[in-house]
Amino acid sequence: MATTATTTVTVTVTAAAATANSVPTPTPPHPRPVAPPALRAPSTLGPVKSETPPTPSSSTATAAAAAGAEDPSYIITVPSYSAWFSFDSIHDTERRLLPEFFEGEAAAASGCRGPHAYKYYRDSLIRRFRARPGRRLTLTEARRGLVGDVGSVRRVFDFLEEWGLINYGALPSGSKQAKEKREEVAQQSLLPSGATVPRKLCTGCRTVCGLAYYACDKADISLCTRCYVNNNYRPGLSPANFKRVEITEDAKSDWTDKETLHLLEAVLHYGEDWKKVSEHVGSRLEKDCIARFIRLPFGEQFMGPKEDRMGFENNDDNTDEPGADVSKRLRLTPLADASNPIMAQVAFLSAIVGSDVASAAAQAAISAQSRVDLNDSEIETSINSTKEEGSSHTNGLSVNDLLKEAAANARAQLEKERNSIEQSLSNIVDVQMKEIQDKICRFEQKEMLMEKERQQLSCLRDLLFTDQLAVMQHQQRTPAAVTECKGDEKPKPVANMS
Amino acid sequence: MKTVSLGASRPSAVNFRMPTRDNLVPIRVDVEVDGQRYRDAFTWNPRDPDSEIISFAKRTAKDLKLPANFVPQMLQSIQGQLAEFRSYEGQEMQIKEKIVPLKIDLRVNNTVIRDQFLWDISNLDSDPEEFVRTLCDDLNITDPEVGPAIAVSIREQLYEIASQSVSVMREKQMSKKGRRAPEFSSNSKAVNNAVDLFKYFGSKGSVIRKRKEWYLYEPVVDVVASEEDGKEEAEEESRRRESCKSSVPLIDSDAELQS
């Protein structure tokens, strides 16, 4: 058994292309996915992964799912975008595209409905196909051999067929090759015929979507409007999961550079008159023009500093242009077609801004440039002659120095002025303060004087009062006793003292 | 320690569904057009959108190279069975704690399989698919078409029992309206078939089967050559009469699939 296995394997190896990489084992091998050569064109997909099917055995001891090989010299090819597949595990691609087995209550609640069931379906389908690789495996035949509900089997079958793990290159396979080209979910770097990528195809009915399609995040499915309305999607999803996505006009037919340039010229010339713009552009409707114009990526650069941007790329083209708009724009066409995006932008900017401003900016740029050049060239020639270098350097240096000195002087003077002003201000403030203080002092003195006078007055009043009393008492003393007078008099001197 | 009487029924009313983990419907299609006959049996998920039925029918017809006038009849048949299933769906069914015997008696291509086993109806997590896969693995059945056929047959029997329990429920409700005693045994076959657990697991019984009954519960698989058809069928008939104790809803013995 072993020898036959090895001989058959060697046969296949020599017959196949050099990239075949098979490991001969007599037992049913696990096919190891080989990394595909990255730059291989998809139409000539060589055997990316080859596998020797299990050697034919006469016993029927194998499980129902695994089928014996018929012809061991077949090479089973798998397209490169499905190179991730392995019998041992479930890949992310599968999880994403068939979430019903991996997510949701059905899968979570039961290990059987979930990944285990998926693996069983997948493995048995693939083994079944590989038993008869040249023949196309039909769904009916397959599902009859699988225990489970036909809906799930059909989905797994479709998935495997689309990814080329089943029925790849099988005979009635005209449709399969067409399916290859269509990649809604581009996994690997290789996209077979990437030119059709922008087209949006509906997962449900496999037709090109029209203006808008409905995208579902959960399951990465895009449906055309009709399928969405008819609920033509898997039972795990509900209408709420879908988002409406508009297809841009660009996707329908790309704008060539020429058309874009025409558009820009027209806009510049006609402003907002979209009718004329569309005429100028030619084969585009008004709304197409508007849409395209809005989507042009130039918007921010309108605000940018033109001088810096149009550094020295612009020299050649705009300086010697007298300024007729049309001729300038005509001359821009070769630029715009250049692959250099910077040139295209510059051309556009100059066209937009107008000839005068553009030429002025260019002149300024050139002069700045020339200065820089001079300095640079001076530095360069220093290698040849040091004197020249020295003189030019000193010249340059002295000029610089003078400038610097002047600047410094000016600054110093400014400082002085400022200081003097501050000084005088502070003097004034001091004087004012003094004045106020003097005034305060005077006021205080006056107050004190007033106090004194008041006191004197009160003293005088008291004296007067006592005098009056004395007089009255004298008048009354003659009839009254001497002790009473004394009693009256005593408190008075006390009062006087206080 | 009180022995719990296992024979007591603890009915619980649930909304109608297949008493299995996955609510899948067994569908049997038998269409005849212009002398060509197409018979098939498969499991369908009733939650799939109806558009799938059409595409499935078309695809099957294309795969089997059937003429296009098969498709409308197939469609009708499938949709009819689904509609019937759905008509039960709103109603309640009563799941008593019953263990029912199920029977398999099939011939698929060249394989004949006969089996009888007990199934717990009240276990809503039961999985006929897993059971069948294990069965096929254990019995080394090589023909992959046997598995699905057995699964469909099990499901059909379970479906039958479930739908009967719906009618039991309905009768019960009607009887309640009539103010009669709530508990009464109906004449439905399913109840008669229920194994009296108490008899088995009561104080005297044991879980282990008696040796003399083993032969009844062994699965029998025969791979026959096609010439022995007539003889086989006669043998089947006689064996069936021996082993079957009560009338169990049988599936068609000639569940042949068009190869």
From TrEMBL, chain A:
Q: Name one GO molecular function term.
A: DNA binding
- Tell me where in this chain the Myb-like domain is found: 252-297
Limits of the SANT domain: 250-301
- Which SUPFAM superfamilies does this one have? Homeodomain-like (SSF46689)
Q: Does the keyword Transcription apply?
A: yes
**Cellular component per GO?**
nucleus
Q: Which residues does UniProt call coiled coil? A: 400-427
> Which stretches are tagged as biased composition: Pro residues?
25-36
Kindly state which keywords UniProt assigns to this record, in alphabetical order: Coiled coil, DNA-binding, Nucleus, Transcription, Transcription regulation
The residues covered by the SWIRM domain are 76-177
Pfam families per the record? Myb_DNA-binding, SWIRM, SWIRM-assoc_1
Region listing for Disordered, in residue ranges: 19-64
- SMART domains assigned to the protein according to its UniProt record, in alphabetical order: SANT (SM00717)
Q: What is this protein called?
A: SWI/SNF complex subunit SWI3B
Specify the taxonomic lineage. Answer: Eukaryota, Viridiplantae, Streptophyta, Embryophyta, Tracheophyta
From TrEMBL, chain B:
Cited Pfam families:
SNF5
Q: What is this protein called?
A: Bushy growth protein
- Annotated coiled-coil positions are none
For bias type Acidic residues, the affected ranges are: 226-236
The UniProt annotation puts the region (Disordered) at: 226-259
User: In which compartments does the protein localize?
Assistant: Nucleus
Q: What is the species listed in this Swiss-Prot or TrEMBL entry? A: Miscanthus lutarioriparius
One Gene Ontology biological process: chromatin remodeling
Which GO CC annotations does the UniProt entry carry?
Answer: nuclear chromosome
What InterPro entries does the record tag this protein with?
SNF5 (IPR006939)
Alphabetically sorted, this entry's keywords are: Nucleus, Transcription, Transcription regulation
Predominant cellular place of this UniProt entry's protein:
nucleus
